[in-house]
Write a structure and sequence with these properties.
The chain is an alpha+beta fold. It has 11 helices and 33 strands. Strands 11, 12, 13, 14, 15, 16, 17 and 18 form an 8-stranded antiparallel beta sheet that branches. Strands 22, 23, 24, 25, 26, 27, 29 and 30 form an 8-stranded mixed beta sheet that branches. A hairpin with a 5-residue loop joins strand 32 and strand 33. Helix 4 runs parallel beside helix 5. The longest helix has 14 residues. The radius of gyration is 25 Å and the shape is globular.
Length: about 625
């Protein structure tokens, strides 16, 4: 209670009146690590006896898009807060800085944040004595060369001491990081990737076909954006980095349950071709097909750095564990849903490349379906439902461009998608969902239009908790939900008999009983059979970012709570049997589970507030 009072006082001081929206970053008070660097205040302090050397000078000679490099440095005046920043493009000077607003304000020497950093003493405990250090960085192909700069003065008062030689990938423009997503029909798969090739330089396409048979080529559309598309800082200032070109190809008329191979290609103006490596995926089952179907669901993962840079272990400590556990089980996974708060770039554009590289083993193999969260969309006066600055000025542009979703309008991030016996209705909590809104009409249509005889498993997904959560700051508001969350929607969930509703935003795991209007509708906790009685609500926002505390009060409807990192796996064995498993990100062990057994007649049966009208006429 004392901690809650202190935090509530902080909210009042900051003028944050809506606890539900104000607490997006409360889970550990994490902040984007790059935001701690006052790079615009950097000054020159070059030292003749200081040196930074990076090698090898050319990487990716065998077509790799990720490679380790070594950085050796010497500095006769070492300090514990000296740090090395990785800059890309490699050359930085004031000529690339936008004009300052105040004519009396000094133009910065460096106006772009590094893509990552490490302290010089990292893995070099004697650095402050010897002035010598050797650092290992893992670089990914990001369409430009790299340099490594040594700074003294810490992160808040950086002084540039020395700059390394430049290093580069053999082909910085190469097509990389494919992301699969379901198209607007069940037999369509989309492939989205990033490259450095504009359409005036090369024509993008995907070469694809059934494994072992002739391959065909599908054209791709190309999108990009510039600094003016960003809504504010840091995305428009120190966080800006050229995003390259994002291409999407639509592979249509797929046969169900077939393994396809594909690769991304670019035909240059001289007629030569640039190719990615080969990837493969299994096409979706026909809607209603009776077969084994497995789904992964989580939110709020973010990214980590395998080289230990950026102090991400202190920011998103679970991200790599979640990623790696899913990769290890990939042969037993058919589709993935990441329901908001994707990269946590928060306006540092370079981090989207880092994120797409991290999830590439997953997203290149199975559909990686995403939702919109506050860290993708929210920015004042930009049309978002919440007038907060959580996106760091991205205001949805990055998420809407970097990932394809089968929405009618990608700026309105709600959509439905079918996978075999599942119907998924994905809401966008950063836009109005209340009764009478455009999104409310979509949600009702999505729920109402599914044929439950063919697709018995009806799943609702959203970023913010529109259902139930006993997170402590929802508890402070007294309703254990996002403000205005379930008031409009609970009658739809009940009327259309939604099996499970999933949410992120709160960085922990919690499962409710089957519930309607704050009341458990059954005493059963682990096996639900027979007539549908109420929707089970699940918070699964503990995939990577700082964990969120629970309320000291545990409501009666809360069946299982876990203050740890994890994700959910759904397994539909057939039309009548579904297995739910909550798995730890540390070792993929199952710590909560339940089953649903239900016949079609059980779905049709009349229950409270979900009865079809009848007539006495014969």
């Amino acid at each position: 209670m004392e901690q809650s009072f202190r935090l509530f006082t902080i909210f009042l001081i900051l003028g944050l009146t809506n606890l539900g929206s104000a607490c997006a970053n409360i889970g550990g008070f994490g902040e984007q690590p790059l935001s701690k660097i006052s790079i615009e205040k950097a000054t020159l302090n070059l030292h003749d006896s200081a040196s930074v050397k990076a090698f090898p000078p050319v990487i990716g000679l065998q077509g790799e898009d990720t490679q380790w490099v070594t950085v050796a440095l010497e500095y006769p005046n070492p300090a514990a807060d000296d740090w090395v920043g990785v800059f890309s493009p490699a050359k930085f000077n004031s000529a690339t800085c936008p004009p300052v607003d105040d004519p009396e304000e000094q133009k910065p020497y460096i106006c772009s944040a590094p893509i990552k950093y490490k302290y010089a003493k990292d893995s070099n405990p004697d650095y402050t004595k010897t002035g010598k250090a050797s650092l290992k960085f893992q670089l990914i192909n990001q369409r430009a060369d790299f340099s490594f700069a040594l700074f003294s003065g810490g992160l808040s008062n950086p002084k540039l001491v020395a700059v390394s030689n430049f290093i580069s990938f053999a082909n910085p423009k190469a097509p990389v990081y494919p992301r699969l997503a379901q198209g607007k029909s069940w037999n369509e798969m989309t492939v989205t990737w990033t490259s450095g090739y504009d359409i005036n330089e090369a024509i993008p396409f995907v070469e694809w076909g059934i494994k072992g048979e002739l391959r065909m080529r599908a054209p791709a559309g190309t999108l990009t954006f510039d600094r003016s598309s960003m809504c504010g800082s840091p995305a428009r200032t120190v966080g800006w980095r050229d995003p390259g070109f994002i291409h999407t190809s639509f592979l249509k008329n797929l046969w169900p349950n077939v393994v396809y191979i594909y690769r991304m290609g670019h035909r240059l103006v001289d007629g030569s071709f640039i190719w990615s490596k080969f990837y493969s995926f299994r096409s979706s089952p026909y809607p209603g097909q009776d077969s084994l179907q497995r789904v992964i669901i989580f939110g709020d993962m973010g990214k980590g750095e395998r080289d230990g840079s950026n102090e991400y272990s202190n920011y998103q400590p679970g991200a790599l564990n979640t990623t790696d556990q899913i990769i290890r089980d990939l042969n037993n996974i058919d589709i993935v849903f990441h329901i908001g708060d994707l990269s946590y770039a928060n306006g540092y554009i370079s981090q989207w490349d880092q994120f797409t590289s991290q999830v590439e083993p997953i997203a290149s193999t199975v559909p990686y379906m995403v939702g919109s969260g506050n860290h993708e969309r929210d920015w004042p006066d930009s049309g978002s439902f919440y007038d907060q600055n959580d996106s760091g000025g991205e205001c949805g542009v990055l998420a809407e461009t970097m990932f394809y979703v089968p929405a009618e309008n990608r700026a309105k991030f709600w959509y439905s998608t079918d996978y075999g016996m599942f119907r998924f209705c994905v809401a966008d909590t950063e836009h109005d969902w209340r009764e009478g809104s455009e999104q409310y009409k979509f949600i009702e249509n999505c729920l109402a239009s599914v044929d439950r005889q063919k697709q018995p498993w009806l799943i609702f997904l959203a970023h913010r908790v529109l259902g139930y959560s006993s997170n402590w700051w929802y508890g402070q508001e007294g309703s254990f939900e996002e403000p205005m969350g379930r008031e409009s929607l609970q009658k739809l969930w009940q009327k259309y008999k939604v099996d499970i509703a999933f949410y992120g935003h709160v960085h922990n795991y919690e499962r409710s009983c089957p519930i309607y209007q704050n009341q458990c509708v059954t005493s059963e906790k682990s096996h639900f059979s027979g007539t549908f009685k109420g929707t089970i609500h699940v918070v699964v926002g503990g995939a990577g970012s700082h964990l969120s505390d629970f309320s000291q009060v545990k409501p009666n409807w809360s069946i299982y709570r876990d203050y740890d990192y994890g994700f959910v796996k759904l397994t539909a064995f057939n039309h009548t049997s579904l297995l739910f498993e909550y798995k730890k990100s540390s070792d993929s062990s199952v710590h909560d589970s339940f089953t649903i057994s239900r016949d079609y007649t059980d779905v049709l049966a009349c229950v409270h507030d979900s009865c079809e009208p009848t007539t006495a006429a014969s």
